[in-house]
Specification:
Helix content is 53%, strand content 18%. It is an alpha+beta fold. The strands form 2 sheets. The chain has a 5-stranded antiparallel β-sheet with strand order 4-3-2-1-5, with no helix packed on it. Helix 2 packs antiparallel against helix 3 and helix 7 runs antiparallel to helix 8.
Amino acid sequence: MGESFSNTRDQIVQFFQNSPDLTVKVIETIAIFVLLGLIRLIILRVVNRNTENKKIQYKWRKNLSYVSFFIGFLAVVQIWFASIESIATFLGLLSAGIAIALKDPVTDLAAFLFVIWRKPFDVGDRIELDTIKGDVIDIRPFKFTVLEIGNWVDADQSTGRVIHVPNHKVFTHQLANYTSDFEFIWNEIQVLVTFESDWKLAKDILSEVVLDVSKEFIEKAKAEIAKASKSYLIEFKYLTPIVYTDVKDSGVNLTVRYLTNPRKRRGTTQKIWESILDRFAENDTIDFAYPTIRYYDNPKEGKARTKPLD
């Protein structure tokens, strides 16, 4: 065994001695990767020492990996291919072969570049793509990863499932971003009261309740709109909550519309409903409506002119 290993080692040594150009290329290739690795490690240590923000550390780590790979790839190609013409020929043949054999992965890479350049979403954003909805927790050259919300869980809360989505879906499906540029959404709650209720009082109560809950978002939303209007044609005349009046089969429908943070939608809904239940319980003139069957005797209960004359 020892003699066989010694013979193999001698053959390798002799091979490199007879091929000095090849030896230099191998050494230069190894040196490039070692140097890039050391530079990346030093930069990451500096970043980690100056910030504890996990998102910033993640972005530096990811971006340095991509930059290091790209620079290393170009440097190695330059070492192993002597002239510019041979590099161009190599890259042309390589790209043509890849485009034909690996259509989806190439599209994934193109979509990755689009995401990095145009930034339709970033790590930490809440998005909806096709039937998938969740918070982006990772972006890679061939896929991005989402922590799912919704599905069998109500009110946009996490299911705990991690979903890996191919990047090319960005090109083929509509993308909705809940948090980029304008970090608020409009939410609505419908409250149905009976026709006999004092619906004007109910409307005043709803206005007070929703204003108290949503006032923390209004000033922030104004600043967000001012920032977003520099890039998009976004304009809201009114940011304060409003209560709309409508009539349904079972009663008067009061629709509460207000601004909230997408990640706090369930919490604000709960606060509003609890306040509504408490305030309505204090007023005997307000009752919730629901589908019922009732008998109405118009001659006895209706307006005076519909009642029989004595």
